């Protein structure tokens, strides 16, 4: 009996999912256990798997089956959703010629090398030619995709991270954000900084590690369906809802680093663990956007992990491991982990200034792609915007235009998703507090399960059945916006 | 410009190698770090990668390019060797229909489940139907391959592990082995057992682990191009010459277990690290047979690791970690690690009795495949042969016919390669002693580099450019045989 169109697609989807899980493992290993001399072969391995994935998605029999399945009527909403997602993924993959994919991969490798050399020497000129090459290739890629309805080339790239999002919505949204964030930063930084002397000193790495495991268990991360390891840059990767890897990093003299890294990555990890396991072989078993994914990490890191109720519950546990903290009150600790300052480096920024770092990057990459800014003028444009938005000017390119790896990878359109994550997080957390009576009391008792249950139901278990903003709208009553975020920051820092 | 046939093949080979490296990593992770709930998806991931490998090897453009490249003349011996190997691999892969591959994979999974249930209950009957199914599928597979020239169906399976080897050569060879091994066992076991009271007690696991790392460094295993981890069953896997994983296991009350596991797997690992890196994207960057691979693990485990010179050098280092061993002389320790006894379980057997365990399995699987033995009669046949060859009769199937997992995977033709490994190891070690003046003295000083250099030159760096027996013949002056092994055991245990 010949396969039906849907059977062909189901087989292709299962293989795509399996290959993407394999690819995730290779990346995880690369950052955790791979011996140094393994890196050459690792590039080949990842490229071979990604090539096989691309083939599964774009092979003529799959394209034909997709067209046939779309022509049939289906009463199954999951099937209809899978067809929509497959069409989206297929068309994007099919529009990019193999030569361009290879050229981008090469330019990325060259970009990272050039960026490292530039960063080490502080000489942006060593990175500029590679960035120009990447920019040209991304323009070519955007043109191959074609701008989405009502959009511009940047939108075609943005679509790869945040389907459905448009520059036309981000620009006014970000302008609004700037309009109230800048005065808020002004106000908060005018006050004397909170006391955090008790965070200076040595904090035993093994005790830090054990506390992060305690946190993973407390937030409900299932360590039978995942694990935590160490890496230089913390990250999370889901191979399958049953196999989710998170990492953290531990500095003996910076105890907050491991704690907030773990909470951040646990947020991503919880999302991956609660994706719809019944659809584990379907393209629907994934998050619909980077912004929604980031909302989960930000929610656990900031809305939960930097809240007073959380530290009412967890400071005593932390102090059991570090007796130097025994005299510190939750209120004092809470203020110390919420210190706001004008700083140069995004990854160290607090939750008030963070989005200003993102606006800066968004404006610059948009100008680059629109051809309104030349690569050679990027450092000066960076520094000027940093002064305007953050009130500080980098002394060295390493702390300025060369601080992030994203552009070295040619990632244009990615940065805005961090801010979308912050906005979605605030909206979802506000809705959870409305939806779960006594949520704050439970947090204060260290019981994080009611929150997880609400998020799993309203976000995680939906997978890619809906688009990100629709998930947020159904969960909160509103689509993308900054009202909940403004209310959250104003309540927390305004007084 | 269109690709040449050789370019098409080179690209296919590079992808096959890369996918096989990826597959090795998935297997490594499965036995070391994978969380328990990851196992379902892992099966899908491995199947998807193996499917992609199969496709790369058998796709019509590759088959055509292979035929075209064969028709051209080449003066490059590496290219000629790669074409020979590709032809061998391609034909074997192309002859097996996809349905049979899937049926075997399913029967293997069912086989392992049934075997575990049978072993736990001691009831062979619970395994028999699954084994019958696997046997039928392997017969079908052998028939799809076609018996090699001058061979029988068993040879078609044997060929998958030991290309070029034939039952017609193994039968007389194994008969000769039995003819002198059985009397040797008789003679050695008639003596009182050596003193090994000092091996009883508790040996700190962390100190054991550190000693195994010391051993890895001493034998020349490059830990920048590989790593050791722990697993329940020790194994080794090469992703690339720059990325080789070995594992060991540590029992607090069995200090020899970790030591000899590490030496065994290091032998495999050294082979993988010294494969021809300049051919890392070619099918030639691999060992030509399982037997030759095993020769390297046996050589380091037994010929080196169970020798007196080795313990002259390493017992003082071991005693520094375990002061209880301080009064023990190298001679006494040497005798203790070479205790010979009639035992039931292959994986615990000493080097004298070990090959009798293999002969037993070879005879039985050959009889099964020839249709001379029914699965239901296997337990009785096992016990009778055990009595004849080893002089012991299992009290329970768990220590008899159900002890190995190999048949549960339907692996028929694999066991003989263990004995080939032992024979090749003895011949190669004898040749190394002839070829490297003062080798024993260097071993006695703990300098293992001259031996590794000889093996790398004469075995490892050849890869699949030649067949296993040709490599051994070129290195030693002789092909497969038991003379060197007999001389080694007779000298060591005869007196």
Automatic annotation (TrEMBL), chains A, B:
Keywords assigned: Carboxypeptidase, Hydrolase, Metal-binding, Metalloprotease, Protease
UniProt keyword Nucleotide-binding present: no
Catalytic activity: Release of a C-terminal amino acid with broad specificity, except for -Pro
InterPro entries: Peptidase_M32_Taq (IPR001333)
GO molecular function: carboxypeptidase activity
CDD domains: M32_Taq
Signal peptide: none
E.C. number(s) listed in UniProt: 3.4.17.19
Similarity-based family: Belongs to the peptidase M32 family.
Role, per record: Broad specificity carboxypetidase that releases amino acids sequentially from the C-terminus, including neutral, aromatic, polar and basic residues.
UniProt name for this protein: Metal-dependent carboxypeptidase
Organism of this sequence: Anaeromyxobacter oryzae
